[in-house]
């Protein structure tokens, strides 16, 4: 690809003014949809994503039910108005793929064997898209699942790292994703210290890969603090604020 | 506690909503952790109802086959009420009309006889104070709020019943039926129950409910108007409530 402009300036600042290892601004709210069993709204930079979780509930059609565990169904969808040019609301190849990887990123943390013959539905609706919407979606989905009171071994936090202008940077935004050299989304269980999703679009050598992974995992740990804060705020409200002040 | 949080380290017995991870006990749901002599548990603050044997539940008749009724008990598992439970051992599908005893849409108070997650729960209405619920205002709350609604030794529910001159029938599955002669009383009781549901985890709730109901601080001494059946259900729930030490 012919690079038309530098994505990192002489002071080491990126296109949106961040440093190499800085996350975009994150805001998570739990329990935004009353009709759902659990829900969350995340603002991850310019991303605005709402996630609703229904279940465990009866499986329809019945033949999809599993005798020994719960079925996890995940739907990632971008609204027609989420991008600058209209996006066709029909599920695209990319959305089908992201739905699958999100399901696989969330499955290891859920204790699905606790709810045999039932189904959990996770709906991820992207209202405004920036780079890294799958990471933001997984992060919000994890909060929504915890809000729904589903048994989980750990939370799942997600964050991407990548290569821009031959430098490894944390939390790739839309411009860096399109014009950069590599993008690596990672989902991570912070207490169990296990990776549940690792994708890579681009070429990295071994050192760059290791640095990228370390950066992404550190990013996930930072994201986890926002998830925890959102849940504590919903369920323990002012008590959390008091403890934090103390 | 949020899922993944380490509650305690050492040789403790995991009771419920916790798992052992190495030498620690880890929470699997959002809630309040309790470590006692008998073990460690998390009292959940959200989630659907999972049936337990001997729970008293309120359910709605959804359909029937020639041998049993299917009952919605506000869970991911629908319950079975065998026809023999109602007609006796000499039940004959050819002779007895099941629709005459319990029609689709009827509300029943029932006890869970058997449940082990591999099969749907079986319920009975052949106990004292169980059976059809003839009238009342139906409310659904989260099953995790039921112990809070009952309060210590039934204090909260007695306060509501006493102040509003109503009878409140509570199922452990979070379905509640309010009956009474006075419409205003029923409306007030419903408001108080909704308030308990929304603010269950906050301190000084009893005081705020009393303010809403317009009663003085002294606890009600005369609860003779409270119908016996409610006490039966209430007491059974109190046992659970005491265990959970909310």
Quick structural summary:
The complex is a heterodimer of chains A (246) and B (246). Chain A is an alpha+beta fold.
Description of the molecule:
- The complex is a heterodimer of chains A (246) and B (246).
- With 246 residues, chain A is an alpha+beta fold.
- Chain A has one domain (26-237): Ribosomal Protein S5, domain 2 (2-Layer Sandwich), CATH 3.30.230.70.
- Chain A contains four helices and ten strands.
- Chain A has helices at 93-106, 133-147, 174-179, 206-245; strands spanning 26-30, 38-44, 47-58, 71-78, 118-128, 157-164, 167-170, 182-189, 194-198, 201-202.
- In chain A, the strands form two sheets. In chain A, strands 1-2-3-5-4 form a five-stranded mixed β-sheet. In chain A, strands 6, 7, 8, 9 and 10 form a five-stranded antiparallel β-sheet that branches.
- The longest helix of chain A has 40 residues, at 206-245.
- The mean pLDDT of chain A is 92.
- Chain B has 246 residues and is an alpha+beta fold.
- Chain B folds into three domains: 6-44, no CATH class; 56-132, OB fold (Dihydrolipoamide Acetyltransferase, E2P) (Beta Barrel), CATH 2.40.50.140; 137-244, Ribosomal Protein S8, Chain: A, domain 1 (2-Layer Sandwich).
- In chain B, the strands form four sheets. In chain B, strands 6, 7, 8, 9, 10 and 11 form a six-stranded antiparallel β-sheet that branches. Chain B has a three-stranded antiparallel β-sheet with strand order 1-3-2, with no helix packed on it. A three-stranded antiparallel β-sheet of chain B has the order 12-14-13.
- The radius of gyration of chain B is 20 Å and the shape is flat.
- The two termini of chain B are 15 Å apart.
């Amino acid at each position: 690809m012919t690079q038309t402009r530098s994505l990192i300036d002489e002071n080491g600042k990126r296109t949106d003014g961040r440093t190499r290892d800085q996350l975009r601004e994150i805001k998570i709210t739990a329990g935004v949809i009353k009709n759902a069993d659990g829900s969350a709204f995340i603002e991850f930079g310019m991303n605005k994503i709402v996630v609703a979780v229904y279940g465990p509930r009866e499986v329809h059609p019945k033949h999809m039910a599993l005798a020994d565990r719960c079925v996890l169904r995940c739907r990632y969808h971008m609204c027609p108005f989420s991008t600058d040019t209209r996006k066709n609301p029909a599920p695209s190849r990319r959305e089908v793929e992201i739905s699958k990887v999100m399901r696989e990123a969330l499955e290891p943390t859920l204790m699905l064997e606790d709810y045999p013959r039932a189904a959990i539905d996770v709906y991820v609706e992207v209202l405004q898209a920036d780079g890294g919407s799958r990471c933001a979606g997984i992060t919000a989905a994890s909060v929504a699942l915890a809000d729904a009171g589903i048994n989980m071994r750990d939370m799942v936090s997600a964050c991407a790292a990548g290569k821009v202008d031959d430098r490894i940077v944390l939390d790739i935004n839309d411009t860096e994703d399109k014009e950069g050299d590599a993008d690596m989304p990672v989902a991570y269980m912070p207490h169990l210290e296990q990776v549940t999703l690792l994708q890579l679009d681009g070429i990295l050598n071994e050192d760059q890969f290791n640095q990228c992974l370390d950066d992404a995992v550190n990013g996930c740990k930072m994201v986890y603090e926002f998830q925890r804060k959102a849940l504590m705020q919903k369920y323990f409200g002012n008590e959390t604020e008091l403890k934090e002040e103390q | 506690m949020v899922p993944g949080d380490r509650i305690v380290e050492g040789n403790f017995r995991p009771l419920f909503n916790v798992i052992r991870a190495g030498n620690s006990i880890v929470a699997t749901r959002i809630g309040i952790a309790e470590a006692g002599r008998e073990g460690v548990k998390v009292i959940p603050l959200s989630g659907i109802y999972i049936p337990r044997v001997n729970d008293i539940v309120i359910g709605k008749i959804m359909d029937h086959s020639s041998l049993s009724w299917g009952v919605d008990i506000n869970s991911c598992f629908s319950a079975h009420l065998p026809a023999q439970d109602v007609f006796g051992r000499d039940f004959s599908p050819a002779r007895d009309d099941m629709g005459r005893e319990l029609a689709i849409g009827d509300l029943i108070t029932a006890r869970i006889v058997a449940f082990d997650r591999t099969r749907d729960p079986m319920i009975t209405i052949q106990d004292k104070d169980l059976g059809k619920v003839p009238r009342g205002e139906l409310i659904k709350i989260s099953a995790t709020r039921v112990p809070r609604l009952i309060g210590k030794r039934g204090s909260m529910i007695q306060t509501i019943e006493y102040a509003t001159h109503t009878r409140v029938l509570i199922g452990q599955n979070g379905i509640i039926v309010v009956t009474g002669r006075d419409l205003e009383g029923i409306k007030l009781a419903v408001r108080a129950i909704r308030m308990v549901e929304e603010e269950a985890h906050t301190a000084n709730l009893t005081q705020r409910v009393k303010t809403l109901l317009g009663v003085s601080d002294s606890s009600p001494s005369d609860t003779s108007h409270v119908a016996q059946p409610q006490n039966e259900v209430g007491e059974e729930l109190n046992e659970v409530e005491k265990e959970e030490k909310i």
